Amino acid sequence: MEFETKYITPDIKLSLFDGKLFKTEVMFEHHMLVWFISGETKIILSDATYIFNAGDIFLIPRNQLATVINYPKDGKPHQAVAMHLTKERLKNFYTRHKAIINIQPLQKVYLFRKHPLLESCLASLIPYFDLKENLPSDIASIKIEEAISILRSTDKDVDGLLANFEEPGKIDLTDFMERHYMFNMPLGKFSYLTGRSIATFRRDFKRAFNKTPQKWLTERRLNLAHYLIAEKQLKPIDAYLEAGFENLSHFSYAFKNQFGYPPNKLTD
Length: 268
What we know:
It contains ten helices and ten strands. It has helices at 87-96, 116-123, 137-154, 159-162, 173-180, 187-193, 198-209, 213-230, 236-242, 248-259, and strands at 3-9, 12-17, 22-27, 31-38, 40-44, 49-53, 56-60, 65-71, 78-85, 110-113. The longest helix has 18 residues, at 137-154. The two termini are 37 Å apart.
């Protein structure tokens, strides 16, 4: 067993990973509240990189592109509890609780290091993962609403995130792609986040960059990898992950094809 996920409801899960590392590129459909039990996680956003360890808790916004790399650490597997805060549940919550005035959408990662109330709330879920049946829906609702209430009492600005239900509108494609090209996402995700159909996205992309999306993305990711290895002294095995490549062999081949030498030439 390398990677295993246990659900006690569709919105609450326990993930366990005991391999060397597990990397995924994601766009979160819902806000995610995560408590790390053991191991280490690196989350790479367009403008910041976060490292989380045992005991850390974070809240990451929906529609946020991210590279997530999970590692076992100190002889322990990577283990985390994650809670999905869906739009439907949050809308229901805010019909009964008044949000702060003049809500401003806040697209940031909220970090709560070893927060006792949040940790107690999430740790209380652990026994349910050993049950043979799903957690009763009323208990799940109580636990999720408890977490939302703790978040609101801990950070007075969090309503700006949780009570904002707008979908992405049409935005500047060039600016968005220059900040998010390192995320290995289907074009459908990029088009959705820039407020376009796929056909309109392709047309606007060609007009903006005079290249197809795939060709431009590959070139930008290779240039980023070159920079990470040559200037930031990253090893190729680390750089290819952060630059948005999924396979080391494919990355090495594409790198040599573009620059005329393999990536390890920069580390000699």
